[in-house]
Design brief:
Rossmann fold, alpha/beta, single chain, seven-stranded mixed beta sheet
Length: 290
């Protein structure tokens, strides 16, 4: 089992014919993902060859869905066009839109995440590495060869920490790893993933990675206390961040004592979550619990 993305998922890539889209489409195909088409109105009707795989280009997401039955799109378009791309995908009825693009204006993210939700489209991202169900499918830029299928569910704000925990726990493996993105506004939250992993019979333990800024982790802690029966292990990035300085992701902004790593750790531990002080210690906690 997995959440959101399985071996049956059929994936479109909006922006496939660009440099990043081409590179990561090749990597997604190599991971076994069923990439069924790209979307570029100016190159509709063309075919792009990835080694022995020929992938058609459609003029719109609607055309791609009609021709292939796609239910996932991965968005690699530039920031200025991301809002229109996600809204187009939502209008077409796509089930999942994975928005890799970084640097999207916050007001655009607010607009397209709300619009997609009304249309029944789940957005993962923006400014995220995507998600992977190892051995099944990979939608985004997460390296597919650093872990294997297994029993851990992972939800993370940070792309690089997603990769590190995947590698450190490679001998155990993962059901699904979801990089939700570190912007102030994202389409899928820690809580969304916690609920999905709680309902997934093959996920036995959940790893939650957060970072300084905002209150998403505190809200996740409250959700764990009330709704999650499976063991949860956490890690918060930013314990050594200089006070008063904006760090990393656009959402990593601390105001006073709110949003600090210590406050988040205390909230998670009060909810019964074991929190590591480093990624390596976090991995050790997971191994011990399993």
């Amino acid at each position: 089992m997995a959440i959101y993305l399985t071996k049956e998922s059929k994936v479109l890539v909006q922006g496939m014919t660009g440099g990043e889209g081409m590179k990561h489409t090749r990597r997604m195909l190599a991971a076994g993902t069923e990439v069924v088409g790209g979307v570029n109105p100016r190159k509709a009707g063309r075919t792009v060859h990835f080694d022995e795989r020929a992938v058609p280009v459609f003029g719109s997401v609607t055309d791609g869905i009609r021709a292939t039955g796609a239910d996932v799109t991965v968005v690699f378009v530039p920031p200025a066009f991301a809002r229109a791309a996600v809204m187009e995908a939502a209008d077409a009825g796509i089930g999942l839109a994975v928005v890799i693009t970084e640097g999207i204006p916050v007001h655009d993210s607010v607009a397209f995440t709300a619009y997609a939700k009304r249309r029944g489209t789940r957005v993962v991202g923006p400014n995220c590495p995507g998600l992977i169900s190892p051995g099944q499918a990979n939608a985004g830029i997460i390296p597919a060869d650093i872990t294997k299928p297994g029993r851990i569910g992972l939800v993370s704000k940070s792309g690089t920490l997603t990769y590190q925990l995947m590698y450190e726990l490679r001998d155990t493996g993962f059901s699904t790893c979801v990089g939700i993105g570190g912007d102030p506004v994202v389409g899928t939250s820690h809580i969304d993933c916690l609920a999905a992993f709680e309902d997934d019979p093959d996920t036995e333990l959940i790893v939650l990675i957060g970072e300084i800024g905002g209150d998403a982790e505190e809200r996740a802690a409250a959700y764990v206390r009330e709704h999650v029966t499976k063991p949860v292990v956490g890690y918060i990035a930013g314990f050594t961040a200089p006070e008063g300085r904006t760090m990393g992701h656009a959402g990593a902004i601390v105001s006073g004592s709110s949003g600090t790593a210590h406050a988040k750790k205390e909230a998670l531990e009060a909810a019964g979550v074991r929190v590591g002080d480093t990624p390596t210690e976090t991995a050790r906690l997971v191994s011990a619990l399993l």
